[in-house]
């Protein structure tokens, strides 16, 4: 397995620019295809139009791998309630499993773990030789299991048994079973560990998973090593970080005192002025299964590390990005200071010079994974020597 490397300046809006890079780096999008539409993307609506048009075009040319990426990312910016959203999601998913059918016959098996009124999809992949470690891995706020295929195969080639899953609020669990996000991530993780009878595992949480995986580790000591693949001490603080300090403090005060109508009014004004704020809030409401911006931010405040940090006693690897458009780098200090009882703490910042400066180090995934692999092996060597 090899990964693409690089960071492209494709759009002046930071989130659009990142998602276009993500399409190339994680989903096998083609740089020339993306360049052909990048300047025409100015809103969520234009994103959906351009990406769908590109998906249809590449599928007609039997460029299935690229079509999968573009349908997947077209659905990404569709608003909840759009009837095309579930149709596009299923189209991308069906194309994916058909295109990669040989991989799922020989290298990865798909399992289902019963959870509430639905299932958690789990990919299980084991190496052909000795197993160096067992890794449980999951994404974050807007990830789908399918975009992590190269990571699973890379870890398998490196000698690791991998259990990749979607939890509440993610992918199939949300789209097909209607199960929204929960900050109590220890619940789905326990289901998975129980089902496969796993012990002595490393858990890796990507993006928002950077707060979810540590939460699971706090309550389940079968997890021996924790990788937070993003700084994320408090999701609410991250969501508000791009706003002026006065507005941040005002919203937090109003949330704490339950001024629901006023919070909804303020956020409605922000959504009317800022299309990305509108998409982000509506996307979050959909993922969390709530009906108002107030409820979304209140829920987001529960996704935080501080109240459970003293319970985390495992070896801990924290990964950061120098120019993360979503998470301010300075948040690392509060997270590190909270992790007072961990067995060991390793902190790594990926930089622009190594193409790792973007959120989740999307411009150099292989470097990030190699860092994780080397950390796991070094920790196990220390305790086994």
Number of strands: 8
Which quaternary structure do these chains form? single chain
Radius of gyration: 20 Å
Poorly predicted regions are none
Apparent shape:
globular
**Largest sheet, order of strands side by side?**
1-2-4-3-5-6-7-8
Mean pLDDT figure:
96
Distance between the termini: 31 Å
Following the backbone from N to C, one meets helices and strands in this order, namely HHHHHHEEEHEHHEHEHHHHHEHEH
Beta strand %: 5-15%
Give the count of helical stretches. Answer: 17
Helix content: 40-55%
Per-chain topology:
Blueprint lengths: L13 H14 L3 H8 L5 H17 L3 H13 L6 H17 L1 H6 L2 E7 L2 E8 L7 E6 L10 H9 L2 E6 L5 H5 L10 H11 L4 E6 L2 H11 L3 E7 L5 H6 L4 H12 L3 H14 L1 H14 L4 H8 L14 E7 L10 H7 L5 E7 L14 H20 L1
Parallel strand pairs: 3-4, 3-5, 5-6, 6-7, 7-8
Antiparallel strand pairs: 1-2, 2-4
Helix pairs in contact: 1-4, 3-4, 4-5, 9-10, 13-14, 14-15
Would you kindly provide a written description of the structure presented here, covering whatever features stand out?
This protein has an 8-stranded mixed beta sheet, with helices on both faces. The two termini are 31 Å apart. The model has no long low-confidence stretch (mean pLDDT 96). The protein is globular. With 385 residues, the chain is of the alpha/beta class. The relative contact order is 0.11. The chain has 17 helices and 8 strands.
């Amino acid at each position: 397995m090899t990964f693409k490397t690089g960071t492209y300046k494709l759009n002046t809006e930071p989130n659009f620019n990142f998602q276009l890079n993500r399409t190339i780096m994680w989903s096998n999008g083609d740089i020339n295809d993306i360049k052909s539409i990048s300047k025409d993307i100015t809103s969520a609506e234009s994103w959906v139009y351009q990406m769908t048009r590109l998906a249809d075009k590449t599928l007609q040319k039997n460029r299935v791998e690229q079509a999968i990426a573009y349908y997947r990312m077209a659905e990404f910016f569709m608003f909840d309630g759009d009837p095309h959203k579930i149709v596009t999601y299923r189209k991308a998913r069906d194309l994916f499993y058909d295109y990669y059918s040989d991989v799922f016959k020989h290298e990865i098996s798909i399992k289902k773990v019963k959870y509430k009124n639905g299932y958690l999809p789990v990919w299980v992949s084991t190496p052909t030789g000795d197993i160096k470690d067992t890794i449980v891995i999951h994404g974050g706020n807007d990830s789908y299991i399918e975009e992590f295929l190269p990571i699973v195969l890379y870890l398998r080639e490196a000698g690791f048994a991998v259990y990749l899953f979607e939890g509440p609020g993610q992918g199939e669990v949300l789209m097909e079973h209607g199960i929204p996000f929960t900050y109590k991530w220890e619940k789905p993780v326990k289901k998975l560990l129980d089902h496969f009878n796993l012990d002595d595992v490393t858990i890796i949480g990507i993006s928002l998973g950077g707060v979810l995986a540590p939460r699971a580790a706090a309550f389940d000591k079968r997890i021996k090593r924790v990788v937070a693949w993003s700084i994320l001490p408090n999701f609410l603080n991250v969501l508000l970080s791009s706003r002026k300090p006065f507005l941040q403090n005002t919203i937090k005060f109003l949330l704490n005192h339950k001024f629901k109508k006023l919070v909804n009014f303020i956020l409605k004004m922000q959504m009317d002025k800022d299309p990305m704020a509108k998409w982000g809030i509506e996307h979050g409401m959909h993922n969390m299964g709530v009906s108002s911006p107030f409820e979304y931010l209140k829920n987001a405040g529960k996704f935080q590390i501080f109240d459970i940090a003293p319970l985390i006693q495992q070896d801990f690897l924290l990964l950061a990005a120098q120019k993360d458009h979503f998470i301010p780098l300075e948040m690392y200090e509060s997270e590190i200071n909270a992790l007072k009882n961990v067995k060991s703490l390793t902190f790594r910042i990926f930089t622009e010079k190594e193409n790792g400066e973007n959120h989740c180090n999307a411009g150099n995934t292989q470097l990030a994974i190699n860092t994780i692999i080397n950390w796991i092996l070094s920790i196990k060597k220390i305790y086994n020597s």
